[in-house]
Design a protein that fits this description.
heterodimer; A: alpha/beta; eight-stranded parallel beta barrel; 11 strands; 48% helix; globular; B: 250 residues; alpha/beta; 34% helix
Amino acid sequence: MQVVLFHLMPYAEVDIAAARKHGTVWGLPNKHYDPQVAHRLYNRFLDELEYGEELGFDAVSVNEHHQTAYGLMPSPIVTASALARRTKRVKIAILGSALPLRSHPMMVAEEHAMIDVISGGRLISGFVRGIGAEYHTFGVNPTFSHDRFHEAHDLIVRAWTEKGPFSFQGHHYRVNYVNLWPQPLQKPHPPIWIPSQGSKETIDWAAHPDRRYTYLQTFSPVKVVARYLKMYRDTCEGFGYKAKDSQLGWSVPIYVGTSDESARREAKEHFENFRNVFVRMPLEMLLPPGYTSRESLKNVMKAKAQMFGDVTIEQAIELGLFVCGSPKTVLDAFKNHWQEMRFGNILVSCQFGTLPAELTRNNMERFAREVMPALKSLG
Amino acid sequence: MKFVESTVEVDRCKVRLRRGGTGEPLLFLHGASGAPVILPFMEKLAQRFDVLVPEHPGWGMSDEPEWLENIHDVAYFYLDFLKQLSLSRVTVVGSSMGGWIAMELAVRDTARLKSLVLVSPAGVAAPGVQPADIFLMPPEEMVRSLFVDQKLAEARLAMPEDVDMALKNRHTTARLAWEPRLHDPHLPKWLHRIDVPVKIVWGREDRILPIGIMDELKRLMPKANTFVLENCGHLPQVEKVDEFVDIVCR
């Protein structure tokens, strides 16, 4: 099993009362942002990811979010670049670049290739469509989101793998001379991972025999994780091949304390801030037209009360939305879930919401020393 | 006045059409929320006109053709629609997005048109005027923002909603108008090509497309006649039926 340290790099010192009042940190006016605080946070979070290498994680991971306290990485390229030079062994996962939001996929192809070459082939490339809110803030038309994603992906992979110059004439992107300098170091190209909140369309696409991309189920109740990972395996069977465990991943926030009781006590406020303030947004923002199929949108509207209400840490642990407890509790939880799902990748967020530096470090150390070695020996 | 419902296929796209009344043809182009039912203003107009109320491609019970990607596609569709139905001397009345479609088709070809009535039309941006964000508003706030008279809003909110239809209409609206938001930056360059009489009708208290946009349209089409209705929101044809019908018939 491959263990990845995942970071959202939130604006962790956000004024929670102001965010609550605004209803969401998405679109929270940036009078609540202080560059001095952000300076401190960026450097703290980059230190945490660098420490991940020392602690023995297989990969450290960054991602892309725009104009929100939820994550301060509008460009994961910047943070991944910093990590490429400051780390030596650990893989660097960009999970992911929001392809439809970028004005041109050639930039993504070029920047990811640069990081792969500079890091000596340590890049894992993730591709996403961005969160619904980002179609509001960026102005990109969500009804073209899937089309742009697929076409951008095709252009990037061809740019990475084919000898140029060649012409790419798509519906959304047209380039007369694709001729990448640099092409990536890994051959045929860096591994491609697809993080998702769960969608049949995404699974059908990622599992296709031409791609076999690693599918990551992110921040979902564990039953939902199991359902989608099974759907991925079944889809592969339908395509006539058996999925490798390495094609499956689960991304989840965790907190390891000295005991179950102290873990819950230490994590409670910060996890609940994460779930109930940082993640929350109105339905209109979360799911703009075309971002999902209308059928999925209808299902979400039905489940609205459940999705948009507050969740306590106790409920979250019960749902498997959050893995929290003593090292033994956390290890047992992962072992049990692994027995059922056989995911080859586990992505843990050791910092979430407002979790401060000291608790984050303790969490990382306990996990890395007392849980991770046994996890790595699974599968 | 009885309206007859039929399905018309134009450009490989089947659309639902309601038609009623006698006289010269009047084509009503609905806005973002569609035209699911025949409304009183349509009945009244049908006493003077042969009124045609289609549902646009992508709305209501009409098809969602693959070719539907931008507002120009809808304009060309309606030029073909007018031709296929052999309509001429047509009064085109367009509300909101329908007003935008009316302008887009008229800058292309006015041969079959008699006049345009633009009712709080989208399509043109005005400096310093910020339209409402119809994609961020919760559904109830959206309906309330349409009217000054909140009784009309409450009546509309009380009607059972067809969720599938609402999502379909919203999807197509986004497809055509998400970005640039509810306008075509190239349209102002060609509005001078509209060589038939134009009336512009606006509710003074329009909270969706504020009346400041009317000034910009008047600047771009100096010969247009403007009509401002007091105590009226985004849908003058619903909120001020008689005054509206009177303006169209004048």
